[in-house]
Every structure is written in C-alpha cells, then in structure tokens.
Amino acid sequence: FQNASPPPPSPTPRFLITALLVLKAAPETSDPVILANASDVSHFGYFQRSSVKEFVVFVGRTVASRTPPSQRQSVQHEEYKVHAYNRNGLCAVGFMDDHYPVRSAFSLLNQVIDEYQKSFGEAWRSAKEDSSQPWPYLAEALTKFQDPAEADKLLKIQRELDETKIILHKTIDSVLARGEKLDSLVEKSSDLSMASQMFYKQAKKTNSCCTIL
C-alpha cells in the first residue's frame, strides 16, 4: 500500500479588515473625535505595528473630516480601501483590503453606527476628546466580519444601501481639498509620532509605504 499523501497546508488566513473606527465628525467639529477604535495589525511586521496603528488613526480622522453628513465614500490605495459613512455627524470608518465587497463594507459600517447608538445614544454629541475606552462590540465585529458573507447577511436587511450613491476616490490625495498635500498633513499631525513620520518618509522613498497609505 502506498502511503497516503499528506494533507495540503492550511491557507494563510487573510486579514480583510484591519481596523474599524467610530468618530464624531459633525459639521461644527473642526477635527473629528475618535469615539471607538479597534484594529488587528498582527499581519504587519512587529516593528511596523505601532506606526500602522497611528496611521489608522491619522487616515481615519483625515477621511472622516472630509466625509460630509449623509455621504458614503471609499478611498482606494493599491490593494486597500478606506470606507467611510457619516450619518448625521456620527461616522464609521473601515480599513479593508480590495477583496472585501464595497456594499458589504458599507452594510457593516451601517451596523456599527446602529450598535453604537443603541449602546451610547446621543452622548457622542458632547464628546470633545478621543476616547481610549474599548468598546467590546467593535472588537467582536472586527473578528466576525472578516468573512464578507457575514456582512452580506446585513446587506439583505439594509435595503436603503441599494439606492445610495457611494463616491469612490482613486487615492487619498483626491479626498483632500485643493492645495492640501498629504505630506504636509503628516508633518502637522498630532496623531503621528516622530518615528511614524520617519517611517512614512522612508517607506515613501522606497515606494513601499505602509499599506494603509
């Protein structure tokens, strides 16, 4: 008898969602306030992880501040997309890879906002500083919805998404106001440490910048 062939190795798990954030991005707010933040950066190199987390905050805040109320938009960069949905000043942002279906991503962000309002009501309107308190639901959603099929279940009951236009931007630069430069925002951002700013500049030179950007 011949020996049975060994089973094929298990596929490396894909990280379709890197981060989910909820922010206060009301018109009267000059700089969006982070209300909840969950991320999984374990698929990045150990020494990159802290910088990636900082860039998630920086990019999330940047995109949220440029997503008007009642608007959905996606910013694509290489194989990643940053999706944002601003519902009356409460904004959910998701960092997904390009394999995650766009409408599934927005059904998830819609669900995140629903759950946030169920948990905290309108208390977010008075928030003035970033919250460091973990919100268990967001961490659970980050794990559960790695499978887009789970988000598809939400899509079936969120019919309004079918009639809502989603604005797609090719790069993050296309979201910025005329005359704004990403490099300049990086230098001015209080979300990024000097180490992360250096990481951004060095990675940009070698054309291998943190995949979030």
From TrEMBL:
PROSITE patterns: LONGIN (PS50859), SYNAPTOBREVIN (PS00417), V_SNARE (PS50892). InterPro entries: Longin-like_dom_sf, Longin_dom, R-SNARE_YKT6, Synaptobrevin-like, V_SNARE_CC. It is a lipid-anchor. Residues 21-137 form the Longin domain. The keyword Cell membrane applies. The keyword Membrane applies. Residues 153-213 form the V-SNARE coiled-coil homology domain. SUPFAM superfamilies: SNARE fusion complex, SNARE-like. It comes from the Eukaryota. Its main location: membrane. It is found in: Cell membrane. Keywords: Cell membrane, Coiled coil, Lipoprotein, Membrane, Methylation, Palmitate, Prenylation. Belongs to the synaptobrevin family. This is VAMP-like protein YKT61. It comes from Brassica napus.
